[in-house]
Amino acid sequence: MIGAKAVANVEKNDSEPRKRNSIARWGRLLLVSKTGTVGLIIVVLVTLVAIFADVLTPHNPAQNNLQDMLKPPFWEEGGSTTYILGTDNLGRDILSRIIIGTRVSLMVGVFSVLVAGVVGMIIGIVAGYYGGIIDNVLMRIVDAFLAIPSILFILVVLAVFEPSILVLILVIGFTNWVSYARVVRGEVLSVKEREFVKASRSIGTKNRVIMVKHVLPNVISSFIVISAMSVATAIILEASLSFLGLGIQPPDVSWGSMLTDGRNYLATNWWLATFPGIAITITVLGIILLGDWIRDVLDPRIQTKGGGK
């Protein structure tokens, strides 16, 4: 009889080629998909800019220089290569503020989605797996949250608490968890009826072990797809709140606050609001393209066709 250790070694040796094949498959599908490749390049570049923002900024983004206020981009008359994208109404470098704002906007987008995803995933798995009164209570809570306009809830919370990066992450996260809960619950209702789950129950496996080892891996793909799209939505929402003056507060910089500073100068100094708007558009577009590719790859109906466009 083969020993347990030998069996474990065989399983380990079998799993390693599968992991390598899976990584290679994803790489091939990504190269085939033009939109997926473009989205990944954009997301990677934006992430690197956010990580190394302090090194990449040519000027102090918070330093006022009234002598150089409202300088145009370097290619326009009166512009200078010292300020490649020009300066704002306080003489601050637009390029430096966009770079440092990348970190704040991306941080709010990613971490708010993590908060929403964790809360929604837990509630969705518990509701779908146990069913009955637990499912009814949790789903009624979800319905109650859906009945409240999310933007109204966010405005009320931000009116009570002083706006900050942490408050924005939490409030955006706790208003977006319902979509995760509903989708994950639907997946769990299907997964829990499969044979491997019933077999685990029959041998006395604890419910929490089944949910972690068997249910969670089978619903994680839906979580990834929703998260990819939700990051883009969270970035736009943060920019909207900052534009209204309820988001990131000075001296912190975000793309939304830059739009607020430049809205009164659109007719005369277009670059103040245009370049932050372009940054938001490119970032959101990249995330959506990558998320769309991930959805196609994880959809078994599309995998047979090459996994992407």
Give a verbal description of the structure.
By secondary structure, this protein is mainly α. It contains 13 helices and no strands. The chain has helices spanning 4-32, 34-51, 53-56, 94-130, 132-147, 150-160, 165-175, 177-191, 195-202, 207-243, 255-262, 271-298, 300-303. The model is unreliable at 1-16 and 301-308 (pLDDT under 50).
Low-confidence stretches: 1-16, 301-308
The largest β sheet comes out as: none
Overall pLDDT score: 80
CATH architectural designation:
Orthogonal Bundle
Strand content: under 5%
Structural class: mainly alpha
Radius of gyration: 24 Å
End-to-end separation in angstroms reads 50 Å
Shape: elongated
Number of strands: 0
Key attributes of the depicted protein:
single chain; 309 residues; mainly alpha; MetI-like fold; 13 helices; elongated; disordered C terminus
Task: Offer a concise description of the structure.
With 309 residues, this protein is mainly α. It has helices spanning 4-32, 34-51, 53-56, 94-130, 132-147, 150-160, 165-175, 177-191, 195-202, 207-243, 255-262, 271-298, 300-303.
Question: Which SSEs are present, and which pair or pack?
Answer:
Blueprint: H1 4-32, H2 34-51, H3 53-56, H4 94-130, H5 132-147, H6 150-160, H7 165-175, H8 177-191, H9 195-202, H10 207-243, H11 255-262, H12 271-298, H13 300-303
Helix pairs in contact: 2-4, 2-12, 4-5, 4-7, 4-8, 4-10, 4-12, 6-7, 8-10, 9-10, 10-11, 10-12, 11-12
